[in-house]
Amino acid sequence: MPSAPLIRHATPEDAAALAAFATQAFTDTYLGLDDPQEIADYVAEHFQPEVMAGVIRDLACTTLLAWVGEQLAGYAIVRDTPPPNCVTAPAPLQLWRLYLGQGFIGQGLGAALMAEVHAQARRRGARTLWLGVYDRNVRAVEFYGRFGFAQVGTSQFLFGGRYYADPIYAVTVKEFP
Ligand SMILES: CC(C)(COP(=O)(O)OP(=O)(O)OC[C@H]1O[C@@H](n2cnc3c(N)ncnc32)[C@H](O)[C@@H]1OP(=O)(O)O)[C@@H](O)C(=O)NCCC(=O)NCCS
Question: In this predicted model, what pLDDT tens digit does every residue of 104-134 receive, in sequence order?
Fold first, then answer.
């Protein structure tokens, strides 16, 4: 990595930058995998600045931003929300979003964000992290596997007017060295 990343909590002032970043990262991730119009509809609904400001303010969520120098390089959001039935381990917390900018993939920044996600989960008293991932997103599936996530079932995910059976993964919250 060119310089060490700084990972910090988002504030409402970050909402516009995060909205633009999240839109780009989501589009880059799924463009080859999904219908472009459905991707555009999804980001228009979920990544407006006022929506992101609401997420940042939401006490059920912790929003982390990773900066490399002056550049927003990645973000992660954990969310306290009822898990799907297949998550039976104690004190579950959702790893809702974890995205890097295209230029920051493959440099260890995902790993740095994952360590901070676990630290935030511990602070929230969570003992289990769970997530849903699109099974055609191979890089992400492999990444989560490297961090001990194992599939515990599937859950319906509504995207572009269709339901997808996304695999659900879970891992015990731990301390990183
Ligand atoms: C999923 C995602 C966050 C994982 O991040 P990543 O950068 O791929 O994974 P890591 O941070 O573990 O980096 C691993 C790579 O960095 C290299 N690396 C360099 N320095 C490193 C360091 N200090 N520590 C760990 N790995 C390092 C590793 O060798 C490895 O390289 P390789 O991929 O060529 O084998 C990222 O791929 C991403 O944002 N993808 C698009 C969005 C997405 O799919 N999100 C998940 C939605 S469910």
Answer: 999 999 999 999 999 999 999 999 999 999 9
Please check whether residue 12 is in contact with residue 53, taking contact to mean a CB–CB distance below 8 angstroms: yes
As given in the structure block, the two tokens for residue 165 are 């059976």
The reply to whether ligand 1 has any atom less than 6 angstroms from the CB of 32 is: no
Tell me, in angstroms, the distance from the centre of ligand 1 to residue 108's CA: 5
What is the residue with the minimal CA distance to atom 33 of ligand 1?
106
Spatial separation of the C-alpha atoms in residues 75 and 18, rounded to whole Å: 8
This prediction has a pTM of 0.94
Assess whether the C-beta atom of 130 lies below 6 angstroms from ligand 1: no
Domains of the chain: 6-172 (3.40.630.30)
**Separation CA 150–CA 168 (nearest Å):** 8
Distances (CA, A) of 174 to 37, 44, 67, 128, 147: 39, 35, 24, 9, 10
- Percent of the chain residues past pLDDT 70, beyond the cut: 99
At 151 the three-state DSSP class reads strand
For ligand 1, pick from 39, 65, 107, 155 the residue to mutate: most ligand atoms within 8 Å of CB. 107
